[in-house]
Amino acid sequence: MADKACKLVLSEYDVFGFDLDHTIAKYHIENLFKLSYDSLISFLVSEKGYPEELNNGFDSHTDFLTRGIIFEKESGNFLKLDEDGYILRASHGTTFLTSSEIIKIYGTDRKWDHAAEIVSSVNNSDSYFIFENFFDMSGIVVVAHLIDVIDKMEGKRLEKYNVWPDVVSAFTHVYRYQAYSEETGGFFPKIKKDVSKFVERRNDDVIEWLKSLKNHNKKVFILTSSYVDFAKDICQQSLGNDWMTYFDIICTNARKPGFFNLNRPFLRLDENHEKEPVTELTSNTVYSQGNLNTLMKYLRDITGKDNPKICFFGDSLRSDVFPSKKFANWETVYLLEEMEIEGM
Question: Which of 32, 177, 253, 324 could cross-link with 288 by S-S, CB 3.0 to 4.6 Å?
């Protein structure tokens, strides 16, 4: 995992990289969660035949929207762990388990069997899923409500659940990148119609800081998994019409974490459409997809250094912090809006 937290001296770095969503861009979280929930449920009701009562109840379970919640796909249980794998709390659907129930299921030490796997890789598996970013967290309430509905219909808790394939279908339908240009799926059309309802305009301090990086001859890039059309609108709302001037290069549809350990080529863009692969990157350009090796060659060229010191900011352990440290050895800054809410 990441190194122990230490004091960050920004002047020591040659290059600054940023994820986009929940990093450069800050969302109106309540609006975003509600839109995501409604879009997912709409698909599950209309396409998968779940009861319409799922359309109600989101507001009564917003306390479930916690980063790091783990869903056990077969048991229908949700777990919150400490750093040693101890189960701090658990629920079945939206019903919280008592301490004695947790011990009965997971043992007297309340240790989760797969904790070591998560610490070493931050990956999901066939048996569990980690809700660890703001785009998937509304799925916690969605899945919990599905478990509740199934238990109600069956009149008991089942030994094994199979809702996860339907949930994956819902996420795929709602978040497929083509949905933004097509205005389909429920989620993207609402954002496209009124970006300011979901994305904040960043304050002058943030914008002036980004400008100062370039003014002090630092190199700055965006590395986002968002597709180019969506990314451009979010950047414009966040930073203004001149947003591209704050960055040396913008990498969209990067498909992290694979960007860091696979060798997909960068693609030229023409009016937001992906075109042929490119092997040399040019400043002041927006690209799609790509890989770490090609980006690093570009950063070495523009800094004039064989080993430029890079600091990367992101909000996802799985997509940003862990792979950029493991595969690229970048210094990483993990952004948690929850700390701002807590006044930390």
Answer: 253
